[in-house]
């Protein structure tokens, strides 16, 4: 007979009543800052590894530009999207997620896809991945998820048991797991993969009318992927394969490009759409909300120094411009805090003043001092607000649009829990050859797990997505096929 587990506590020893759902105003938020357990987890998590990034440590970057190809002013007042033909300089950082700074480029892992637009209204960061969904949908689970992707605290080895234990207890991960284990799990290069904003964002036009949007960067080079065998060979022979490929292609004048599309959803549709549009583990059907072209991104210049540009580049989904706002997506709400906080600890309180992060537009604020303050620090100008000495003032026209919220402050889950339909649809869209490779990859990844209960629980999720999916994984592992419910 085993002893009951001890109570989970905060860092100050208080028992935690809910470690699955952050405290929000109603089921769609926004997340409340009174959730001190969430803030404690995220803030501590951001400081766990120094000095490399906690996640997305291994990456490569390049400069380029974005050119508008369609008039989207009916949807957003963002100045850099205001007219066809307009070009905006940008910087992009591609990365793996879980590995350390010296890890191989060709591991099976999502790829970060972060874009910094240097607009005339300040910087705009679009911080996404090469997948349209993510493993979890509430930021309170993010530190735990990433812990499973890192090394065991005793052996210092990767831990498949932790990975599959967490996934099997978090069925919302199934859609992303299916993508990760499919042919799309290892891109051939950074140039041959799509990019996604993943989250839902809000566009607001000059009249104050809003729509929900999702971003899709479609590679113009075509999608190409690596098999597991080739990826493993490259990891041993050239662990910097993707970094080298991106640099060489630009150096040789073969400039990679992506076409940016958005899906547009009327605000009122969010109340009735069959999937919660703010759940980052779900996609919107392109039959319901077709892709609309916005512009074209081209990368045409390599960094002159890796550290000062790629390593010190800081991105946050909270780096916004007028006309682009956030949604009640709980994962996005947590990232608004966590990303900027990570940069303040890793690079410094003045990270936005570094050349790679500094806006091209004029910066006027009352922030002073802090480590590594290397400019004039505001000189002798007025250093508080409000003031009657001519200092910069707010511009009411640039206030974000209002968003109604209601509900009881509580640790509230999303009110829809269909984690299987979209994963099953994806499986059924695959060819027989793609399904076979998917199952083989999953079986290989799960075999090192010694706990049969974990394997059975995960097989059950595959089975609920599609019975054939579950049966084939079970057979590959030599385990019983789940009983139909």
Task: Tell me the strand percentage band.
Answer: 15-25%
Q: Percent range for helical residues?
A: 25-40%
Shape, principal axes of CA atoms: globular
| CATH architecture classification of the domain at 24-154 and 188-361 | Beta Barrel
CATH topology of the domain at 24-154 and 188-361: Catalase HpII,  Chain A, domain 1
Report the sheet with the most strands, covering strand number, pairing sense and barrel closure.
10 strands, antiparallel
Mean pLDDT: 94
Class from secondary-structure proportions: alpha+beta
Radius of gyration computed on alpha carbons: 23 Å
Q: Going by CATH, what is the homologous superfamily of the domain at 24-154 and 188-361?
A: Catalase core domain
Number of strands: 12
Identify low-pLDDT runs.
Answer: none
What is the class of the domain at 24-154 and 188-361 in the CATH system? Answer: Mainly Beta
Counting H and I runs of at least 4 residues, what is the number of helices?
12
The SSE order reads EHEEEEHHHEEEHHEEHEHEHHHH
Q: Termini, distance in Å?
A: 30 Å
Pfam families: Catalase (PF00199), Catalase-rel (PF06628)
Family: Belongs to the catalase family.
Enzyme class: oxidoreductase
InterPro entries: Catalase (IPR018028), Catalase_3 (IPR040333), Catalase_AS (IPR024708), Catalase_clade1/3 (IPR024711), Catalase_core (IPR011614), Catalase_haem_BS (IPR002226), Catalase_immune_responsive (IPR010582), Catalase_sf (IPR020835)
